[in-house]
Automatic annotation (TrEMBL):
Signal peptide: none annotated. Keywords: Membrane, Transmembrane, Transmembrane helix. It comes from Planococcus halotolerans. This is DUF3267 domain-containing protein. InterPro entries: DUF3267 (IPR021683). The chain crosses the membrane at residues 18-37, 49-67, 106-128, 134-153. It holds the Pfam family DUF3267. The lineage of its organism: Bacteria, Bacillati, Bacillota, Bacilli, Bacillales.
Length: 181
């Protein structure tokens, strides 16, 4: 195996640019989703159950990280969880893979939170139209969290089909088999 390419989105784009893109994406998702749902549902909005909304906001990040883990369950011996502070006070959860993982499995791990949580929020907004404003905020927040994952997916879709992905200190390395001569 040899390294075909190393991808480090945080180094390539920088924290400030990624954060700005995430905020803009979240605002765009909120605006489009909220307007679209208001177009289809004329139910008066309610601010009851704000406590559950608050719990939902707090649980989005841990659920997001847990859904990254689901496709990698078979590789759990090579997974490492790291808890650290981000922005000085907020807890951050990192999931590191110690061994190379097949590209398709890694892509599935990156996309699982986006697909599962967003589908859940959209279904709940259809079931409870009086709380679409809460669900629009949850969806926007989660889409903002997913932005970095989606940028990695965009990079990985351009890699060789049978590549393996390995996480290192410098980012994700795309490993491909050496050609036999």
């Amino acid at each position: 195996m040899h390294c075909w390419k190393t991808i480090n989105v945080k180094k390539e784009y920088g924290f400030n640019r990624l954060f700005t893109f995430a905020v803009l994406a979240g605002m765009g998702v909120f605006t489009i989703f909220y307007v679209l749902l208001n177009f289809f549902y004329t139910t008066p909005l309610s601010d009851r159950y704000f406590f559950f909304f608050f719990l939902g906001i707090l649980s989005v990040y841990p659920l997001h990280k847990m859904f990254h883990f689901l496709p990698l369950i078979g590789s759990r011996k090579c997974l490492k969880f790291i808890l650290r502070k981000q922005l000085g006070m907020l807890p951050g959860i990192s999931l590191h893979v110690k061994e190379p993982v097949a590209k398709t499995r890694f892509l599935l791990a990156l996309l699982a939170p986006f697909i599962l949580l967003n589908t859940l929020v959209i279904l709940l907004s259809a079931l409870f139209p009086a709380y679409i404003h809460y669900f629009a905020i949850l969806l926007a927040y989660h889409c903002s969290l997913c932005l970095t994952d989606l940028v990695y997916v965009r990079h990985l879709l351009r890699t060789p089909k049978h590549a393996l992905i390995e996480e290192t200190e410098t980012g994700f390395e795309i490993l491909v088999p050496q050609a036999i001569s």
